[in-house]
UniProtKB/TrEMBL annotation:
Keyword check for Lipoprotein: yes
Originating organism: Streptomyces bingchenggensis (strain BCW-1)
Keyword terms of this UniProt record: Lipoprotein, Signal
Signal sequence residues: 1-23
Region (Disordered): 54-84
Name of this protein: Lipoprotein
Keyword Lipoprotein: yes
Pfam families: Lipoprotein_15
Length: 329
């Protein structure tokens, strides 16, 4: 009797762990699937988190791609003062990164927006861990184009420095000039390259991203594929157990998204990307266990013609939720 109880308890624990890994927070239907993690790796700082808050850990330990060289200035002023003259520093594995006049690494956040209307989405507790760099008293040195400098007005009314259109931050987990412990935290924070792009391998591949997040005026942040086409999820699919409800004629209109290299994604948590084996043996990408599709009715990047189709198809948010739908639905 005791052995049977132990076996049952072990099976229950295994099921709980598997359910937690595959979006069990939403109402699911039953089904089955062959699910595998996506290939590729994502470097995340030790102690970093990649949950809904998106801003990671404030711990002083983490991924340190660079060395310890630079000015040892520390304290509040080092994290909150103006950047003054920006400089370019070469770091092993990351290549060229931007530092302030004291040698402290500067960062960018994938969940911000850039371009003609940049916006910082790091406020309150996030801004304590990632202090925004003031826009005042900033100049450039060799390797950085002056035209890349700009500013954005934050939610509290202060002006924050931008580089290449991206709001600029420091990381409270860096304990001295030269540290790069913020790079890779949460899968959304990266050291800045001189053009405002993420430093390192991701910077070199920025133009060939296979999955990323864009801002839509009506739907907010939504996921797009490598061609910029909107990605959708289907209410008749099941996330746990994973099962597809789009078969036969459905596939003429809704095309399964192919698996991606997780080193070529931005704005989504790569650990939540998995590969699903469809009934015909082909592979399909899943985000937080929801299968992803594109819509043949979308003819150009930015189209969202599939949104709300039949009351079953929805664009996917950066958290794998249904875009344009209240959280409780």
């Amino acid at each position: 009797m005791k052995k049977r109880q132990i076996a049952f308890a072990g099976a229950s624990v295994a099921m709980v762990l598997m359910t937690a890994a595959c979006g069990a927070s939403e109402k699911q239907s039953t089904g089955s699937a062959n699910v595998q993690p996506i290939g590729g790796t994502q470097t995340v700082g030790v102690g970093a988190t990649s949950g809904a808050s998106g801003y990671g850990s404030s711990a002083g330990t983490g991924n340190e791609a660079g060395g310890d060289s630079g000015d040892a200035t520390s304290g509040k002023d080092a994290l909150t003062g103006p950047a003054k003259q920006l400089s370019v520093r070469d770091v092993p594995k990351l290549g060229s990164i931007v530092t302030d006049s004291k040698g402290w690494t500067l960062y960018r956040f994938d969940e911000d927006t850039s371009g003609a209307s940049p916006k910082s989405n790091c406020n309150d507790a996030c801004a304590t861990k990632w202090p925004p760099v003031p826009a005042s008293d900033a100049t450039v040195s060799t390797g950085i184009a002056e035209k890349e400098l700009g500013s954005v007005t934050r939610a509290d009314g202060t002006k924050q420095l931008t580089l290449g259109g991206w709001p600029v931050y420091r990381f409270a987990g860096d304990t001295k000039a030269g540290d790069t412990k913020g790079h890779g935290v949460g899968g959304t924070w990266n050291a800045l390259a001189p053009d405002g792009k993420p430093a390192g391998k991701k910077a070199a591949q920025d133009d060939s991203l296979q999955l990323s997040v864009t801002s839509n005026a009506k739907l907010g942040k939504i996921v797009v594929d490598g061609q910029g086409m909107t990605v959708y999820r289907f209410d008749k699919d099941s996330a746990w157990p994973m099962k597809t409800g789009c078969l036969n004629a459905c596939l003429e209109t809704w095309k399964p998204v192919k698996p991606v290299d997780t080193s070529k994604v931005a704005g989504v948590d790569p650990k939540k990307l998995t590969t699903f084996t469809r009934p015909d043996g082909s592979k399909q990408l899943a985000f937080d266990c929801w299968l992803l599709y594109t819509f043949t009715g979308d003819t150009k990047p930015g189209d969202t013609n599939g949104q709300g189709k039949q009351g079953l198809w929805f664009a996917v948010t950066d958290k794998a939720k249904k875009a344009g739908v209240a959280a409780s639905e």
